[in-house]
Every structure is written in structure tokens, then in C-alpha cells.
Amino acid sequence: MAVPIADDVGSAVVSDEALLDRLRGGDAAAGDALVKRYCQPLIRYLQRVAGDQVAEELHQQTWLSVLDHIEKFDPSSSGGGFKAWLFRIATNKANDLWRSRGREKAAKEGLRLVVDEEAPAAGQRMESSEQAEKLKRAITQLPEAQRQVLMLRYYSNLKFVEIADILGCPLNTALGRMHKAMLKLKDLMSE
Amino acid sequence: MIEKLENNEQILLMYLAGELPAEDRADVEQMLASDVALRRDWEQIQSLHAVVEEGLGQLDETSLMPMSTHFAVRQVGRAIRQKLARPKIAPAAMTNEGQPRSWWWLYPTVAAASVAIIAMVWLNRQVSPTSMPAPVPAMGEPNSLADARNAGEDDDTLLLDSLSPADRSEAKPASDEDPKQVASVGDSIPQDEISQYLLSATSPGQ
Question: Is residue A179 part of a domain?
């Protein structure tokens, strides 16, 4: 999935770093443009990694953390630029949530999450594709580490080197997790 | 970079992502051309990747986002504006380490000001001793000749005794003084001299 780089059709492309500089200077509209640019992939990533119920909260926490640390961010020192930094923060927020819940409780939450996914909430549209439903269930059954690599690769389109850096693991490990995640998903979907 | 990767799957994933350096990419293409097993692995990786990509794309198209993009932008935008509206701490009040500036100059200044005030008060007392109030005399004791005259005492001795030595000498009449003047200070003339004068004035030889 390609991350859009233009805010509006036909408008000049403004780099993330330029918008960030303007936001540092107090330009709230530059912040709006950044949020709009990454809103969909970021929310989707958090939705797949942490679940529908907390994706909205984690999304807001991510941007608040961006604001808190905006002065310290140096695009030249951060491999992958602002996008990698943004998804790193989002991943950390999701991990913090995981740790705060506790692993045992999170395992129960994971099972409950699967059940919730199977029974759509009132007012929510039914999944039209059975295959999509199967894939959604399969994603929740992936181990957290594999799920993170797969979703980061798909939604952020970051390089594997940058993904490994975000997750704090060697490149080999990130690639291995990616391959295992793809294999497991295929197996779960074919069941 | 290929030498750092552990197996064919990892190499092929990097090749599929287009993240191998040019020379490594050339090596992989050469191996794919000659190695059947590697070619089979490559096809499997491509198939896996296509299934996942298609499935996730379909999932995104059919599943709702937890909130709309418009709502998300508005929600975060509000938080951004609130944060930007907060006043920042003035840089002059902070040191480079982010610690508040210490008011080191305050204590010596206060100490110097205190010493100066104390010195001024002390000097003021030293310079003007006459400004000190005159001691209040004890009851019945005139502190001047005039007070002695106004005392209203009939007993001249008592009056004379109450005078200071300087005032007593002033009260004694001189021989060449004007008798009227002497008479005017009659109260202050010693009693024995008055008596002698009266005796001499009434002697039979005259």
C-alpha cells in the first residue's frame, strides 16, 4: 500500500520535514496536513496490531507524543525520516499497552478480541468478503512479533532495515519473522 | 549484504523488496538463472506476497476504520492547537541543562544592604548627641537660677542650698554693684551677710 505524498490532487508536494519545521514554528495547519497524510495507514496499522477498540486512542497518543518530542527529532540522524519515527512511536505505544495489560491478561484479551472480531458490533457493517473475514481472524492469531513486522511492512512501506531498527532486532530476525508470518497467514486462510 | 543474511528466503525477500545493493541484486539474478531450487523458492515467496497483499487490500476495503479520517484529523488538530497555545517557558529563565536559573546575586545584595542600613543608624546616633532629650530633673530641684527665683520659697537658705555652685556665685552681690540690683537679687544674698549689713546699719556710733 503506497503512502500518499501529496495532500491534494494537483498541489505541490511538501516534504514531511518541511511540514514538521512549520509545525515547530507554531503552524497548526502544517500539523493538520501531517496528520491527514498518515492518518489512514497509521490507524490501519494500529487497528491490525492492537485492535479496533484501542486504535483511536493509540492514534491520538502517537501524535501527542510527536508534539512532545518534536524539538528533539532530527531527520538526518533518524533512518527513514519522519515516517519511520512516527511508526516507531506508534509501535511503542502499542507495546506499552501490551505491557500494561500484562501478558496473561493480554492473551485473554487476544482470545476475546478474536471473538469480538467474529461477532461484529452493532451498527458496524458486516464483512462482505468471507476471505477478508478469514484473513482478519488469521491476523489476530499471529504472534505479536510477526504481526508487527508484517503490518509495518504493509502499511508503512518502510524498508526492512528501518523496520528492524524500529523493532530493535537484527535485520535477519525481522526478515525471518516476515517470512513466517506470510506462511502462517497462508495456512490459516487455507483452513 | 547477502553474506549477512541467513537463508535463501531472507535474500529473496530483500530482492523482492528491491532493497539489495546493485551488485548483490546481480548475484541473485545470476543464481536464479542457474539454480532451480532457488527459482522454486522465489516463486513461492512471490505467491505468498501476492496473497497477503491482496488479502490485506481486500480487508481494508471491506472493514471500517475505527474513526473517519476527517474525525481523526479534527481530533488531533484540536490537541495540536491546545498544545501550541500553551505558553512556552522563556529561554532566558532556563540554563542549557534545563535547570532554573539560580538567584546567586540576591543574597550578597541583601547582606550588603543590611550592613549599610545598620551603619547609617549607628552613625546617625554618633553624630547628633544633642538631639538626645534633656534629662528630666527630679521633683523639687530647680535646674536654673530662674527656676530658683520662681520657686516661691520663703526660706532663702533652702533656696540658696538648692542652687548649683555656679548659680550661687552669680547670686552673691559684688561690692560695687548697684544697690538696686543688689536689692533685686536679695533673695539670693546669704543670710549672714544680710544680718551683718543690718547690724552695721543700726550701730550707735552712727
Answer: yes
**Residue A6 belongs to a domain:** no
CA dist B85 and B88 (Å) reads 9
Distances (CA, A) of B44 to B6, B14, B75: 18, 14, 43
For residue A168, the domain's CATH number is 1.10.1740.10
**Cβ-defined contact of B52 to A150 (cutoff 8 Å):** yes
> Could you say which residues from 130 to 189 on chain B have a Cβ atom under 8 Å away from some Cβ of chain A?
none
- What domain range includes position B182? 152-201
Give chain B's end-to-end CA distance (angstroms, integer). 159
CB spacing of B4 vs A124 below 8 angstroms = no
Q: Give per-residue pLDDT as tens, A37-70.
A: 999 999 999 999 998 889 999 999 999 999 999 9
Q: pLDDT, tens digit, for every residue of A117-147?
A: 444 443 344 445 677 788 888 999 999 999 9
pTM: 0.63
- Residues in contact with A128: Cβ distance below 8 Å, sequence separation at least 6, in sequence order: B62
